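seq as requested:
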Amino acid sequence: MKLTEVKSVKKLNRKKTVYDIEVENDHNYFANGFLVHNCITTSNVGIHYPTATLIDELRMKKDKFENCYDMKFTEFIVDGGIKNFDDIQKCLCLGAYAVMSGSIFAKAQEACESIVFLHPNNLNMADAIPSEEYYDKLKELKEKSDLMENEDNEYWDSYRKLSKRKPYRLYYGMSTKRAQKLTGGSGKVTSEGIAKPIPVEYPIAKWAEDMADYLRSCMSYTGCRTIEELRKDTQLIINGSGKNSYWK
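struct tokens:
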């Protein structure tokens, strides 16, 4: 692939500010000669459209369609790469009617797929211990350690090592081979999704409570009384930082 300099810049007759929502860990890729952010499809096939730019253009097309045909209530939903509270708020500010996320809910205690225990420095699922077996093993080691005269014994050492493990569950997207097989497919189609262990961090009720609080704060900072005002009256400013969103 050959990279070339930008030869010209065209000035628009209106303001157009968008925010490119990055994907954690895998940030910048080249698609058709342009440096953009990615999803796993981008990293594998080189085809991508920046999420925030896509949302902004969809909103403009939606407005044009409604004005031309005198129709209302045509809406769109954003899906892909939504990991944090701020990602959801940015999508709403850009005009999205709703936002979908997989990893946010997969981290909830109530999510499907069994919980296993892994060491944070070794996320190999082959080394995973099912939750029931994990707690039984912890209890057994603690009881054996308590029976020993010497407090610093082999059972206590094993107990300490085992207790450093944290709860995880296997998270996978619907385009992964695992999901293809579970939904009746052959699993032979090339995977464009992510399958990896992710930490189990919170009950869903706590996340929903935090989401409501952060959304209210976002609306307060932007002077919006309703979500509809947030979708229509908010301006986003691009910052070229490649760091995480809290640095932007």
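Residues 138 and 159 are 6 Å apart (CA to CA).
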